[in-house]
Amino acid sequence: LGPTVSEATAGMSPGRLQEILAATGLPATHDPVSAVAALAALFTDRTRMAELLDTAPVEALSVLDRLVWGPPYGEVTPNPTPPVKWLRDRGLLLPVSTRTVVLPREAALHLRAGRAHRVPEPVPPVVGTAAERDPQAVDRAAAGQAFTALSTVEELLKLWNGGGPAILRAGGLSVRELKRAANSLDVTEPIAAFWIELAYGAGLLATDGEPDERYAPTPASDEWLDLPAEERWTHLATAWLAATRTPGL
Question: C-alpha distances in angstroms, 216 versus 35, 45, 152?
Fold first, then answer.
């Protein structure tokens, strides 16, 4: 499900909100808050919502059918087709960016008609064995990945020792510095973001606290480097399991 009407219209101009109300046949309001509330109330009123959808072009209903079960986002062009324009005019598609729209949650819940899934599956599917793997080969591959994790984080700490990249005013790492780290670690940018986030989450990297803040290894990283390989891996794996941060965002 996508954002609520209130979330999706945050920052929308009062004039645009009034245009949506007029297109849906709702009376004008005196402020954006009441306009958003009126639109959300329409989308949660089964009778009035059904009446509104009865006036929709068939093609517009097809668009809604593609979005209702997710993902609720769709791309639009500067000159949308008439069905998409009909939906946008009535707030059934709300803008996320200049090229992306979203089906608001209240409208999606109405269209789902109380169902949690498009097609109920009361019986679990039969799970078969896709492929047989040699346990020893699996263990060797896992050990190899563990050592790769250790060596990559060690290389990152060495790379940023003595003062790493500057922290952006809004927080985080610049795209240029992420590219530079990825090149130095010989990995892709998403993979570099993962290792940086993991080292940060494990307490091995932090801001240095100087007026011109930069990322740098922490005192705890020195202790970590002195640990046996299995304990260093356990520390990283524990931090990964507890992580709530999403690399790259």
Answer: 49, 55, 16
pLDDT tens track for 168-198: 877 778 888 889 899 999 999 889 989 999 9
Here the tokens at position 194 are 């993962």
Pairing of strands 94-95, 100-102: antiparallel
Q: How far, CA to CA in Å, does 239 sit from each of 67, 202, 232, 243?
A: 36, 5, 11, 6
Domains, the chain, ranges and CATH? 5-112 (no CATH), 139-242 (1.10.10)
Instruction: Kindly state the tokens that stand for 80.
Output: 């949308």
According to DSSP, the residues that pair with 176 across neighbouring strands are none
Question: Which tokens sit at 201?
Answer: 């989450």
175 vs 248: CA distance, rounded Å: 10
**Per-residue pLDDT tens for 3-49?**
999 999 988 999 999 999 999 999 999 899 999 999 999 999 999 99
Instruction: Name the nearest CA neighbour of 19 among 97, 105, 91, 107.
Output: 91
CA geometry: angle 216, 221, 223, nearest 5 deg: 150
- Rounded percentage of the chain residues whose pLDDT exceeds 90: 59
197-222 residue pLDDT tens: 999 999 999 887 777 788 889 999 99
Residue 98 is encoded by which pair of tokens? 């200049």
Q: Give φ, ψ of 166 to 5 degrees.
A: -70, 150
Query: What phi and psi, each to the nearest 5 degrees, are found at residue 104?
Result: -65, 150
Please name which of 49, 45, 48, 38 lies closest in space to residue 29, comparing C-alpha atoms.
38
Residue owning tokens 């060596």: 151
Residue 248 clears pLDDT 70, i.e. is over it:
no
Distance of alpha carbon 137 from alpha carbon 145, whole angstroms: 12
